[in-house]
């Protein structure tokens, strides 16, 4: 793989994906401080919150306060989830300038997560896309369960490609491929990305892998060999989807940064500052730090 010198775009999803499944209510000030610390560490795409129904995901109920309080920083973007027009309008009113819709390659997961089947969900995104286009707001599209579903098991690459192609045709500038429950392995991840890249240009694909079975870095390396250059990750490996039983954390941002720096790829991220943030947020959440790199590089007082 001829990677040295090439660049990788990191999308930090900790404040949204990382926190959405936390059982206790996290103070808004802690969430804001997390976002600021991540930006201080050099991350430039930070998924800040989700404009979803607070009945479905109570942890994201302070989405408006988060977006309103975030001071713009040159070069830093704060995308948010918006599953419908209500979410989009609220997000835009609070200052969001990048949004994401989220679909799934599994019919059962789609129903559990957003209360409708795949085709219905895509129909529901159409007015979101139309309104976002009118407002000149770029929309990212997620596809969940690309390497397995907690309800249906195996998901064929064909099913992933179908949803990815639809989202792309609707105008999503990027399609993020989620291994929601982290069951993927490298060759499986390759086969899935190869199939999706037949219908969406590789440059518009992102890998969003969870690390439930410890495969995420290997899977990322495998799909980077194919040309993936956008990687989603969550500080301290926090994360999990409330509607995906058994889903554990996303791949830890510091593990990804360590791997990329070791490959000669500059990320613009200050690894020491990121590790410090990982320890800080775990302290706030009252949980141990799970990521290998954050444990290995623990500050003396952690
Ligand atoms: C999509 C809905 C809203 C459908 O939920 P629904 O119940 O079918 O929707 P509804 O239109 O019937 O609305 C029900 C209530 O929610 C309100 N509502 C409706 N929309 C909104 C909104 N945007 N913001 C705030 N409130 C909203 C609406 O006003 C109403 O309130 P009520 O009249 O009962 O008081 C719901 O299922 C939902 O919010 N789901 C979100 C689930 C979620 O956030 N999951 C986690 C994110 S996805 C993920 O983690 C995977 C990913 C992206 O990371 C990739 C991967 O790893 O695979």
CATH fold field value: TIM Barrel
Q: What is the H-and-E element order?
A: EHHEHEHEHHEHEHEHEHHH
Shape: globular
CATH class categorisation: Alpha Beta
CATH H-level superfamily: Aldolase class I
What's the structural domain tally?
Answer: 1
Gyration radius, rounded? 18 Å
User: Would you identify the regions where 5 or more consecutive residues have pLDDT less than 50?
Assistant: none
CA(first)-CA(last) distance: 37 Å
InterPro entries: Aldolase_TIM, HMG_CoA_lyase_AS, HMGL, PYR_CT
Pathway: Metabolic intermediate metabolism; (S)-3-hydroxy-3-methylglutaryl-CoA degradation; acetoacetate from (S)-3-hydroxy-3-methylglutaryl-CoA: step 1/1
Organism: Ectothiorhodospira magna
Enzyme class: lyase
Describe the protein's architecture and organization.
- The chain has helices spanning 14-18, 28-40, 63-69, 85-93, 107-114, 118-134, 157-170, 186-196, 216-226, 253-262, 271-285, 292-296, and strands spanning 9-12, 49-50, 80-81, 99-104, 139-144, 174-179, 205-209, 230-233.
- The protein has 302 residues and is an alpha/beta fold.
- The protein has a single domain (11-296), classed as Alpha-Beta Barrel (TIM Barrel).
- It has an eight-stranded parallel sheet with strand order 1-8-7-6-5-4-3-2.
- The model has no long low-confidence stretch (mean pLDDT 95).
- Residues 17, 20, 50-53, 55-57, 81, 83-84, 86-87, 102, 113-115, 142, 144, 178, 180, 208, 241, 243 line the site of 3-hydroxy-3-methylglutaryl-coenzyme A.
